[in-house]
């Protein structure tokens, strides 16, 4: 009803303040972007190859989105398990192993499906300037994905366990750590796999 | 067994977010001419997307908490709490965008990169893209929250995935747009 009009808070005092939001957000964000800039510089170093193969330019946000989401879901599930108590703080915990295995499986399925979609989007949009076979592209995409998901899952488990051990809420820690690490490692792994396949020098 | 429900509930959403990322990626793929014309532009892209994701998700989850605390609801949405949150998010976007521009410039001119971008151009693009995407996503979040309130759903379940899917696309389009704008103006 009062959507268009600024209202004074009922209690008279305000819980949120822009100063507090900026002050708490800035340090972690600065650290995050410092790491992301490193990933950006890897892209700049390989810009020539990316311009020859725009299909990999399309792939980068996708590779990072999948690993970030799966890592966050795994982290959130571990956090809930640790809070409630059905996951113990042990690297041999069976429930944790099950979650890890399912995450890897979900990652594999997702990378496979989206590799095919990307290939046809790129072909349809005339974004394949240099020839690359569908099978080769799927192989590169999935190998990068498996490498990345494994890394991100381990980072997710370690972050969840360590933060829980130190009395920090894993829910606050896992998502930012996992997405940042995943972004840079995703770019790095993609170029390593591309190098192995001889696509870029 | 928790595994089955995990696959059933998360997998479709993860694939859906991936499809959204393909739209963002295709936008990036269409930017190749711009990336060639503006050295250093490719460096800032992961950082801007990460910044946008962090600030918007935090904004969304704060509004979710505010709803659970009873501070905001559908009839009392546009209040001082929301105003402080909007100002905080946009100012944070401005500061972080500025830092991204500076860091991208400094790391580019140093060895072993040795690329020399135009610092004014690069920083302007990052700030315009950061503020523009911030403003669009802030108001999108408020609109989503308003609709979620009206239906009585829990905002915590809706804003996260919605922002994850649309955030990257909107941010990438904003980078594209501000790149073209700066290229034309300067």
Q: Which characteristics define this entry?
A:
heterodimer, A: 201 residues, mainly alpha, Tetracycline Repressor, domain 2, 77% helix, disordered N terminus, B: 186 residues, 6 helices, 84% helix, 0% strand
> Are there runs of chain B of 5+ residues with pLDDT below 50, and where?
none
Q: What count of helical segments of chain A does DSSP give?
A: 6
The percentage of residues in β strands of chain B lies in under 5%
Question: Largest interface, with Cβ-Cβ < 8 Å?
Answer: A-B, 78 and 74 residues
Low-confidence stretches of chain A: 1-12
Please give the CATH architecture of chain A.
Orthogonal Bundle
Whole-number count of domains of chain B:
1
CATH class of chain B: Mainly Alpha
Descriptive notes:
The complex is a heterodimer of chains A (201) and B (186). By secondary structure, chain A is mostly helical. Chain A has one domain (43-196): Tetracycline Repressor, domain 2, CATH 1.10.357.20. Chain A has six helices and no strands. By secondary structure, chain B is mainly alpha-helical. In chain B, 84% of the residues lie in helices and 0% in strands. Chain B has six helices and no strands. Chain B has helices at 2-29, 32-37, 41-68, 80-109, 119-151, 155-185. Classes of the chains: A mainly alpha (201), B mainly alpha (186). The interface between A and B is large, with 78 and 74 residues.
């Amino acid at each position: 009803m009062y959507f268009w009009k600024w209202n004074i808070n009922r209690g008279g005092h305000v819980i949120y303040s822009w100063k507090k939001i900026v002050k708490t957000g800035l340090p972690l964000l600065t650290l995050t972007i410092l790491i992301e800039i490193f990933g950006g510089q890897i892209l700049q170093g390989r810009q020539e190859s990316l311009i020859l193969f725009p299909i990999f330019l399309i792939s980068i946000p996708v590779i990072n989105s999948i690993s970030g989401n799966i890592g966050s879901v795994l982290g959130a599930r571990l956090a809930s398990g640790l809070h409630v108590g059905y996951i113990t703080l042990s690297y041999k915990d069976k429930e944790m192993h099950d979650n890890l295995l399912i995450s890897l499986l979900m990652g594999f399925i997702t990378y496979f499906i989206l590799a095919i979609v990307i290939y046809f989007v790129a072909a349809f949009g005339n974004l394949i300037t240099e020839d690359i076979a569908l099978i080769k592209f799927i192989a590169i995409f999935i190998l990068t994905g498996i490498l990345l998901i494994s890394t991100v899952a381990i980072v997710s488990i370690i972050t969840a366990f360590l933060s829980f051990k130190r009395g920090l809420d894993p829910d606050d820690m896992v998502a930012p750590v996992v997405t940042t690490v995943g972004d840079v490692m995703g770019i790095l792994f993609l170029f390593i796999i591309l190098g192995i396949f001889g696509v870029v020098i | 067994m928790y595994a089955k429900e995990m696959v059933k509930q998360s997998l479709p959403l993860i694939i859906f977010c991936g499809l959204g990322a393909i739209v963002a990626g295709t936008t990036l793929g269409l930017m190749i001419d711009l990336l060639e014309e503006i050295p250093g532009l490719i460096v800032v892209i992961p950082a801007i997307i990460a910044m946008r994701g962090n600030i918007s998700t935090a904004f969304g989850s704060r509004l979710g908490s505010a709803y659970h605390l009873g501070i905001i609801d559908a009839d009392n949405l546009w209040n001082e709490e929301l105003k402080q949150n909007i100002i905080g998010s946009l100012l944070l976007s401005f500061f972080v965008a500025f830092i991204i521009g500076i860091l991208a410039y400094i790391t580019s001119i140093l060895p072993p990169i040795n690329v020399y971008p135009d610092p004014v151009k690069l920083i302007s693009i990052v700030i315009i893209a950061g503020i523009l995407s911030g403003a669009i996503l802030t108001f999108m979040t408020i609109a989503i929250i308003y609709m979620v309130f009206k239906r009585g759903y829990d905002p915590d379940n809706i804003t996260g995935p919605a922002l994850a899917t649309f955030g990257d696309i909107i941010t990438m389009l904003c980078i594209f747009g501000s790149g073209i704008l700066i290229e034309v103006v300067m």
